[in-house]
Amino acid sequence: MRRRQFLATAGLAMLGTMGAARAAGTLRNIAEIVPAGGVIADPSLLVAGGAESEAGKWGGVLSDALARGLGQPAPLPRHLTSGQDGVTGANLFDTQTVPDGTTALLVPGAALTAALAGDPRAHFDFGRWVPLMMSLLSPVVVGRVELHRTLRDLVRDRPVRVAVSAANSGIALATLLAMNVFGLRPVPVPGFGSRNDALAALADGRVDVVQLSDPMPPRDQAALFDALAGGGAVPLFTLSDAVPVAAGGHAVPTMAARFAQERGRAPSGLLYEAWKVVAAAASLDVALVLPMLTPPAQVAGWRHAVSMAQESGAVAALTAGNGRKLVAGPDCGPRLRDMTGEISAVLTLRRWLAVHTPEWRLG
User: Please, are residues 126 and 339 in contact by the beta-carbon 8 Å criterion?
Assistant: First the structure.
């Protein structure tokens, strides 16, 4: 087990004593959990993103929903940061946050993807964080591409153009890598920072594949798939099974299930292991985390507040039927380990990027 995985596991294990008490319904007041007055002094949220980002939207809801569980008379102060992918906020959290339990971070999966890819801007180790809550998604890969790799494709070696937000691929890195696992030659086409822009490019034939990562109610998602079908684009697979996705009355398969359909066997190998890690990170909407080494009583206090926040109408309105799945407490541990990955998988991902990035830059 790697050092950061051990630290994360240890940080979660030390909180296990809360489980039985909560199951018995005995803990409803933070004074029963946190000593020294029963409060966490001046709790606040550091938001890895601006007000319009996914983390920013969650911050607006959780600042109020968490306040009651933390014994605060007013919504928790929110400190917004710059940047589209949350890397700036994650850096601030790792370098400037004292692990005393007063500050929690709301961070999107894009920041984790950047760290996994070895983005030089990322100076944080998310594997050491203590997760309190995660909002998970099932991003859908849609497009016009033959995944069974026909003989004509082999001869022509036609590239598969994937819409991405920036030259470093961003959250769509999972889709690029998936195309390579299928034996295709993916090429990122940058400049598509929004879903509508990417879908317009798909309709115009400027790209072949788009990753839809925005959470959507099932009815809206089905309507979108119907509209795409008119142009010959279909849902190819999902990056996770966190939230069921259907198109045309049928479930959209996960990437592993679709690969088995096309190849008659399960995917395997280091490239697939690298894909699993980056796909897990890409399937994270936002996570609420504390720094490693936060005292157990303070972590328990935040977890208590999260359990109460889950009961709030505002949190339910954001999650129920909107393409999100909420996990909290011990259930976050395995998810974080999936996003952290083994060192061999992360190194494979970075080697793959090192080989292909120069040719992508040359076009």
Answer: yes
Task: Provide the token pair at 54.
Answer: 């996914």
Residues 6+ apart with CB under 8 A from 36: none
Cα separation, 336 vs 342, whole angstroms: 12
Q: Which amino acid is at 30?
A: I
List per-residue pLDDT tens for the chain, 363 residues long.
444 444 444 444 444 434 444 443 444 555 555 544 456 889 999 999 999 999 999 999 999 999 999 999 999 999 999 888 999 999 999 999 999 999 999 999 999 999 999 999 999 999 999 999 999 999 999 999 988 765 565 555 679 999 998 777 789 999 999 999 999 999 999 999 889 999 999 999 999 999 999 999 999 999 999 999 999 999 999 999 999 999 988 999 999 999 999 999 999 999 999 999 999 999 999 999 999 999 999 999 999 999 999 999 999 999 989 999 999 999 999 999 999 999 999 999 999 999 999 988 876
* Domains defined along the chain, listed by start: 3-136+284-346 (3.40.190.150), 140-279 (3.40.190.10)
Element spanning 332, H or E: helix 332-340
Full-prediction pTM beyond 0.85? yes
